[in-house]
Amino acid sequence: MDWTELVVETTNEAIDAVTNILMENEAGGVQIDDHDLNDVRVITYFPANINVAEKAPELEMQIKGLSQFGIDPGKATVKLSDVNDDSWRDVWKKYYHPVRITRYLTIVPSWEDYQPESDDEKVIRLDPGRAFGTGTHPTTSLALLALEKEIRGNESMIDVGTGSGVLSIAAKYLGAGKIDAYDIDDEAIKATKENVALNPIAKDINIGTNSLLDGISKKVDLIVANILAEIIVPLIPQAKECLNPSGKFITSGIINDKKDLIVNELTDHGFVIDEILNQKDWYSIIAHLPSEGE
Length: 294
Fold this sequence. Notes:
Elements: E1 3-10, H1 15-23, E2 31-33, E3 40-47, H2 52-64, E4 77-83, H3 85-95, E5 99-100, E6 105-109, E7 122-126, H4 138-150, E8 157-160, H5 166-173, E9 179-183, H6 186-198, E10 206-209, E11 220-226, H7 229-242, E12 243-255, H8 259-268, E13 272-279, E14 282-288
């Protein structure tokens, strides 16, 4: 498969805002080249069947428009180039290295030889697959931290918009029980299956194609969704119907100016906010569905 590489030249302070703009325009994940803090490169990839050339002028305009919000976008240039599959993988390998994300969870690329530093360190092996990210973006890091905080053992879980499958795999390492991982994108499903194969502990995860929780009627103890805030909104009433009493709902992928929207939607639908985690301009919200009499 061929790919289109999209590179935004910007500043360190604009990284999160640029990432959000790209994610809102169908980018599934990004890599950051910030070796020179004055000239940062935000890199992502699109399959060749997506006409990125049509998107580029609008993206550049949105990025330059960040100055209206007090964010210096720097050069704010958008550059495109075609790459083949081998070149694409080589670029991922250049920027993707083992990273300790939480107290117990370390993400390691599939091609790295890595040994745990302690007995309680859980090593998640991943191949980025397409552009679904390496698990190190703040939205994913926050979701992983929330899972580490909330999983006690044997919880049933649904992972909505699983992407690379990293959250489901991490949940298995943390002791979760039955897990269903859903995504609407066939490439995401393929990437999740490949990553599950790299982590035998996760072999019994049920992976399926589905749009949010449409048509899902089962009840579970935990639902996690690392997706854009605009997509979380219609998911909230669905999650309410699919959670057991006292069930937990972890959302991530929420940029600063969408946080209040998600908090209000959750409380309006009867959820209780337990904790709000943040990293830079990104937020993850841990909420639960009250049991009767609570």
